[in-house]
Amino acid sequence: MKHIPQYLLLFLLLFGACKSPNSGSPAPLTDDALMDTVQRTTFNYFWDGAEPNSGLAPERIHMDGIYPEKDQNVVTSGGSGFGIMALLSGIDRGYITRTEGLARMEKIVSFLEKADRFHGAYPHWWYGDTGKVKPFGQKDNGGDLVETAFLMQGLLAVHQYYVNGSGKSEDSAQADPALTAREQALAQRIDTLWRDVDWNFYRQGDQNVLYWHWSPEYGWAMNFPVHGYNECLIMYILAAASPTHGVPAAVYHDGWAQNGAIVKPHKVEGIELHLRYQGCEAGPLFWAHYSFLGLNPTGLKDEYCANYFDEMRNLTLVNRAYCIRNPKHWKGFGVDCWGLTASYSVNGYAAHMPNEKDDHGVISPTAALSSIVYTPEQSLAVMRHLYGMGDKVFGPYGFYDAFSETENWYPKRYLAIDQGPIAVMIENYRTGLLWKLFMNHPDVQAGLKKLGFQ
């Protein structure tokens, strides 16, 4: 495949740069070099691996070329939101030039302007060559407000990156006026997409709750009001933040927080959690990632949670402690190999969680690696261990989605929604770039204030 030589070149460069001058054997990568290697290769999922017409993230990439549902050209809205943020980090780090990055963002926005939308909200999947919705399920063939929120989180970060011109130039210290004008024009186009999302419509008749789905064919048949806590916090914040279709604060307090019922102090693995986790005592780790790729949890609080960073760190530590205790005695689980989240599994796809019912012996690298902002030392230990396992778990787009040592199961397959948080959270740990951009958007600031966040 055309992407393999670039990957091999990167590997050889890193291998050569890290040789010990005395022994001739490779010296261990520094933490920074390791993070950069993982971030750069994961970024390539969204750069080299992008669907060519839309520029967006394919839902999945299978290195074996086997796609049972013939969906290799299907792109994902939420995963693309994460991927857009990964692209920003690549532009800022010089993985690609400012000009290259802008051209890709223009392609993406041009696609989004024409792709199927439903009262301003995007579907979970499109066909990348046409922009037509691909049903996520029989009745899920319309707007998906949660995935739309993930996409908008990324687009608002891009808006802030370009609204005044990025100020970066690969050729000189002086900004290129023509490039700056294109960047600012793109920011305005993103603002239009953002303002077009009709969050109020998804209250299904002005109820004080947001519904996940609406279909032009099946209406509200999916019937999924969203309550917390899970991965959907960002949806409620953006719904409140919208300058054109903003929902009242009561939608957050009555719907998401259910008039305070979201608060449920309890302990798991001896670690304190403050929130009620929907359907479980402690959720999969993507609940600590998806809303916080742009939303900075550091010191963030409202009347239901005294510190979202501490809560998400504790959720991560619960997950780690469970894997170390390893009650089902899976091979490989331990202090340097932990992490349960939604991913491919030994039997299809599963939301792996830190309990014996939902633990299938599968490690998903995104779980620990995307928690690096919460548990840097522990997550870096996992990163180093996994990197040491070599090409069994690491390929041209970073770590493969999941594996099981017990089952000797090492599929060379990727999912966008798992790759994106790795690159984004590594960048947030290193520089806070995506947090700074998203949190600096004036509408986001207004939405947080409206809901009583500090």
From TrEMBL:
Transmembrane segments: none annotated. It holds the Pfam family Glycoamylase. Coiled coil: none annotated. Residues 223-442 form the Glycoamylase-like domain. PROSITE patterns: PROKAR_LIPOPROTEIN (PS51257). This is Glycoamylase-like domain-containing protein. It comes from Bacteroides oleiciplenus YIT 12058.
